[in-house]
Amino acid sequence: MDIEEFRRRGKEAVDIIADYYQSVDNHPPVASVNPGYLQKLIPREMPQTPDSYDDIIADMQSKISPGITHWQSGNFFAWFPGCSSYPSIIGEMFSSMYSVIGFNWLCSPAATELEVAVMDWLGKLLGLDNRFLSIDEHGRKNRGGGIIQGSASEALLLAMIAARERKIQEICSQDNISYHEAISKQYLFVAYVSDQTHSCAEKAANILGVQIRIIPSDNNFRLTKDALVAQISQDKRSYHYPFFVCGTFGTTNTTSIDDLPGLADVAEVEHMWLHIDAAYAGAALACPEFRELAQGIERAHSFDFNLNKWMLVNLDCSAMWIFDSKFLTKALSAGRNILYRDSLEKENPAVRNMHNWQIPFSRRFRALKIWFTLRVYGVVGIQTHIRNQVNMAQWLKTQLILDGRFEIVAPVVFGLVVFRLNEKAASAFGSIDLANSCLYQLIQQDGRVFIVSTMVNNRLALRAAIGSVFSTMENVKLLFDVITESATDAISSHIYN
Ligand SMILES: *Cc1c(COP(=O)(O)O)cnc(C)c1O
């Protein structure tokens, strides 16, 4: 492909993309192919000589498209949204244009400095405590700062790494032992999460080789101070070291919010690191009316949310802030310093060696798509996006209650509605789970909308997450119709068969 062909094909590609979005709602939101379908359509070996570009595009339309689940469809309500937007796609294209690898400032000064700038923009957008910003109000370097990670899972792992480092240093000075002796106690380090915390916390503990306690949540799916304190005192009696606790702002199952002020109290007393995982719901903090729910976050040591869930920037884009970077950078900086300009970091608040804040060495220029998106939407545009979807979730909740056959399983706070057929509606089935599994199957068979199920309190529940940038009231009304029609079919088929 030479530059002239690239020019022509590139323009064509944007047209294909625009055509796709224009008609994305016309596709069933979920792919209806069988496992292994593509294996039969794709040769086992790559082409020996170049394929024709027309063939590649034709194959994409005929072979790849049928196997796509349309996350951007207005009728996609599964999991959490994977929200993208046009400015984000364009920002991603320009990031590919530069294709820089920004591990330190010199690699591409704009990549580092724009990231520092947009992370401060974002921190202010969410109303985060000033400690989390890179540059304070006098233009001086703060101890903390924000950085874009690839995922909430990586952010949690990094928070745990920083927490471990902090605890090791503490043991060194308290017990007056060497760093290596302190590290050797790591098998006694304990991280605390709840049974509603995302599974990435367990993964992080497995990677680090520390212990993890999965504490039962309360009736409102929250990790409470009392439960945490009880578990910690048990562990301390057996000479363990509590070092990390994760509080979730908007759990994956039900968007519940842990007792964050309570967890912050315990973290302070026990010298533990408090990480807040707000992967999905963090975006809502752009609207001040949600900030009351987030009390305690200002006392956390790190905080993370995914723009690629609910804030209009496509994957991958997870925004992490840390109150003081020294533990993380100490843990991650390798001894050999081959990066001669590293000393610049000390001199200027906008200069930072990103490779010491993340797991990979190289990094993508992701700040560009954030910058495009935040500028095209503005604070007001982002708030409107969030509020519209929260309102649609409230509408759906109200309609389901008015219908009379459903119960709402968890408070609807953000864009997620968790519901099920209630006892009465399910009475003919003998089991409420059976009734809801039948309802769920009928909704999937119908295929006009896509939702997934989950287990809440060991009972089947259905989750409808509103959040696609293309979801309008029309789509949510369709969702409601499909749910209620399927409920009618489920109940009548059971009564008459
Ligand atoms: C989605 C989600 C995660 C996982 O996010 P990744 O970016 O895919 O790692 C973690 N925590 C919560 C609360 C989530 O909702």
Provide an overview of this structure.
Strands 1-7-6-5-4-2-3 form a 7-stranded mixed sheet, sandwiched between helices. It has helices at 3-22, 53-64, 86-98, 109-125, 152-175, 179-183, 200-208, 225-237, 260-270, 307-310, 326-332, 344-347, 367-403, 432-446, 473-496; strands at residues 145-149, 189-194, 211-215, 241-248, 273-277, 302-306, 318-322, 406-408, 416-421, 452-456, 459-465. The protein has 15 helices and 11 strands. It is globular and about 70 Å long. Helix 4 runs parallel beside helix 13, helix 5 (152-175) packs across helix 11 and helix 8 packs parallel to helix 9. Helix content is 43%, strand content 12%. The chain has a domain at 101-364: Type I PLP-dependent aspartate aminotransferase-like (Major domain) (Aspartate Aminotransferase, domain 2, 3-Layer(aba) Sandwich), CATH 3.40.640.10. It is α/β, with parallel strands linked by helices and 497 residues long. Pyridoxal-5'-phosphate binds at residues 80, 151-153, 198, 200, 248, 251-252, 277, 279-280, 306, 318. Pyridoxal-5'-phosphate is lined by residues 80, 151-153, 198, 200, 248, 251-252, 277, 279-280, 306, 318.
